[in-house]
Design a protein that fits this description.
3 domains; 5% strand; three-stranded antiparallel β-sheet; mainly alpha; Arc Repressor Mutant, subunit A; two-stranded antiparallel sheet; elongated
């Protein structure tokens, strides 16, 4: 075992997509270094599965690593198996892992959008393979000959020209047939270039139409805005009750949601926003999170700062500007 009994090597290997084994993995050194840090996030977890997943997810918080190297589909399969087999579910630990998985998924989405935009803006450059030489040097005799060919004055002498070789001053022999073939190739290259430009233009226009068509249905990624709206919803519901259920916060967000989506989409987005934002607010110290006993017990939220009514002031108090960059990446 590479990471000891408190880790599961098989979980780490499944999450690292395309890695045949841990010993030969390009991430081994980073994983070993991160696993020894006392302040690393996985150190606060107990279950070996949770610790292994958190170790991999935390490593890919670094901006120099590609989030697509993490196999989130394998994580979903393993996480579902763990939930089904577990007798007692540690909700805070599960929430921590889901929050980290969300960060990886967000990084993958941002990377995919950037790649698509670069592909749409890319215009292939064609190398026109023409060298300055005898082809571009013309004199009066060449001009007169061209006029004779176009007017028909040289019809009698043209057949004999294809039989021999034409020697120019530079000494490069070439037949008239080769010259005509070269012009034909140049015409073909120009036509291909025009076709590529037309296709690129059509793709850009189709992309713009698609963005305009679905702009009303896209979820606008605004984490800080979601956190503030969720905190405000919690404060609003907490005025009439000491404990607030997660479902009540989702209902409050749904009630205050903006127009543009149908009822089902609005309800679903409010539930997702409430769940994800609650995990972040708990992690950052704004609220507490607990679950009542029994099967499918309610998830209950508690306001840790009952005397504070302004989200911005509380944020500045908990996370001063000097720590804002670090906190935003948590």
């Amino acid at each position: 075992m590479i990471f000891g009994e408190q880790m599961r090597d098989d979980v780490v290997l499944r999450l690292l997509e395309g890695q045949p084994n841990l010993e030969a993995s390009k991430f081994l050194d980073r994983l070993m270094e991160l696993s020894t840090l006392d302040e690393a996030e996985h150190q606060f977890l107990i279950d070996p599965f949770d610790r292994s997943v958190a170790l991999v997810f935390q490593m890919f918080q670094s901006s120099d690593l590609d989030p697509w190297d993490v196999d989130l589909s394998s994580f979903i399969e393993m996480f579902n198996e763990r939930i089904e087999k577990a007798e007692n579910i540690d909700l805070p630990s599960c929430g921590r892992i889901i929050r980290m998985a969300w960060s990886i998924l967000r990084g993958q989405a941002i990377s995919l959008i950037e790649r698509q935009e670069r592909a749409m803006d890319f215009e292939e450059e064609v190398d026109w393979d023409f060298d300055d030489g005898w082809e571009v040097e013309f004199d009066d005799a060449d001009y007169n000959f061209s006029v004779g060919v176009m007017t028909g004055a040289a019809d009698e002498t043209l057949p004999s020209m294809f039989e021999g070789r034409i020697h120019r001053e530079e000494g490069r022999p070439v037949t008239l047939g080769e010259l005509l073939l070269g012009l034909k190739d140049a015409s073909r290259i120009a036509e291909e270039q025009r076709t590529r430009e037309r296709i690129a233009k059509e793709r850009r226009e189709a992309h713009d139409r698609a963005r305009a068509r679905f702009s009303g249905s896209f979820h606008v990624e605004d984490l800080e805005g979601d956190l503030k709206r969720t905190w405000d919803a919690l404060k609003s519901r907490a005025q009439s009750s000491e404990s607030v259920a997660l479902g009540e916060v989702a209902d409050e967000l749904n009630r205050n949601s903006q127009a543009g989506l149908d009822d089902q989409e609005t309800k679903t987005e409010s539930q997702v926003t409430a769940f994800v934002s609650t995990l972040f607010l708990t992690n950052r110290g704004y609220i507490s999170l607990d679950q009542e006993g029994g099967y499918n017990g309610r998830i209950v939220l508690g306001d840790l700062w009952e005397g504070s009514e302004d989200y911005e002031e509380l944020t500045h108090k908990l996370h001063p500007k000097s720590d804002s960059l670090e906190v935003s990446n948590v």
